[in-house]
């Protein structure tokens, strides 16, 4: 018989039909009641086995074992479920030794502990919910852009440029480490490398996306990006996924509207399609919050927070206003900030969080940053000091989006590149977009894991990506 998904059985609530289900045992009570889960949803299916079931078979029905069940779907007499399965036959697909099974040995395994057993963390309620939500969000990303006529452009993962200019590059090379070919001055001769030049894993698909936007008008990328940023924080990964739309003819205001619409759309989509998972995660978070001192607890639960974002426009302020708010803030006066706040600095995460969590209590879009702290491609404002940048800051996370209107004026762009020591000759292919029918355009990058964190309420970014890569950690 063909396998039926547990989610479909629980959803339909129909009874009196024969099915086959397969999955992993979550618990086995009284030698009679199996809670079975196949990952299709958070709900377990109750399988009831006959009292005459063979002893040796019963011994093999342990937590974590995988089984196949043929039986009838019947109305359930027990609490907690409308339907259950009366098993006619059970086959063990994979045994699971209870003496060694990590999820059996720990009563309530911590998130940290589960990170060390990557293959099993998917089988817990929490991570099952997180990764189903992550899936839905990524589907919603494609749906949002597809419905609006954007072209999904696959930008390269191996790149010769450092789009953000931060120098956090992972080198890609086939040269021998111990004895690389050298130039006369002792530097490494990358002409002999695989690509005939120095290459790295991409930090952003933006520059390539800009080329696409100059032909398709609206494009987006959604791919892995890599940064050798040595920061061991709860919101940084060395390998993360980024969504980068790039739109011809858009200015910074269109860009902000697009980002807001986009974020609301994917959150609403997850609320509609993953409600059970989100309710579970909301309860999990509420439990976690109870452990915290009163003053640190968030005022809104997870679902209320998401609804709040759906129903309220983001606050829009300039960098200059943001700095002034921070300077005048009670937190600053009480010397609560670790980093000094003054015009010209890059906002630190403590500043960003003060703005969104304490001052505005909602997501904030900050525009008009000093040009010195932003990338070369951002459009210069008439004041000569700031650029048309926009960062979106979210409660609990900080920066989730970084974007800008791009500098479309060739002379201003090349001037800025030379000020920042970016070799214009190597970037001829990028500058060509400003030479041959260039137009004003704008785009942004949404850190996918950061939005997954926001939607699932997980505080550590390592818990929202299946296989996190962080400094000193690429175990599996
Ligand atoms: O602000 P960033 O560096 O912007 C860019 O890369 C632009 N090229 C985007 C564009 O305009 N097309 O990065 C964008 C977002 C950040 O706001 C953050 O959410 C996420 O990417 N991000 C990270 N997420 C996880 N780990 C890291 N190390 C991240 N660095 C950035
Ligand atoms: Mg940024």
Structure description:
With 476 residues, the protein is of the alpha+beta class. It folds into two domains: 6-101, OB fold (Dihydrolipoamide Acetyltransferase, E2P) (Beta Barrel); 123-168 and 203-463, BirA Bifunctional Protein, domain 2 (2-Layer Sandwich). The protein contains 16 helices and 16 strands. It has helices at 6-12, 55-60, 102-105, 111-115, 118-121, 125-147, 206-216, 252-273, 275-290, 302-311, 319-327, 330-333, 349-359, 410-419, 428-435, 448-456, and strands spanning 17-29, 33-37, 45-48, 66-75, 83-94, 151-152, 158-159, 171-172, 199-201, 218-226, 239-248, 315-318, 364-370, 386-394, 398-405, 441-447. The strands form three sheets. It has an eight-stranded mixed sheet with strand order 6-10-11-16-15-14-13-12, with helices on both faces. It has a five-stranded mixed β-barrel with strand order 1-2-3-5-4. Strands 7-9-8 form a three-stranded antiparallel sheet, with no helix packed on it. Strand 2 and strand 3 form a beta hairpin. Helix 6 (125-147) crosses helix 8 (252-273). The two termini are 36 Å apart. The model has no long low-confidence stretch (mean pLDDT 95). It binds 4-amino-1,4-dioxobutan-2-aminium adenosine-5'-monophosphate and magnesium ion (MG). Residues 163-164, 204, 206, 227, 229, 236-237, 240, 242, 244, 399-404, 443-445, 447, 449-450 line the site of 4-amino-1,4-dioxobutan-2-aminium adenosine-5'-monophosphate (4AD).
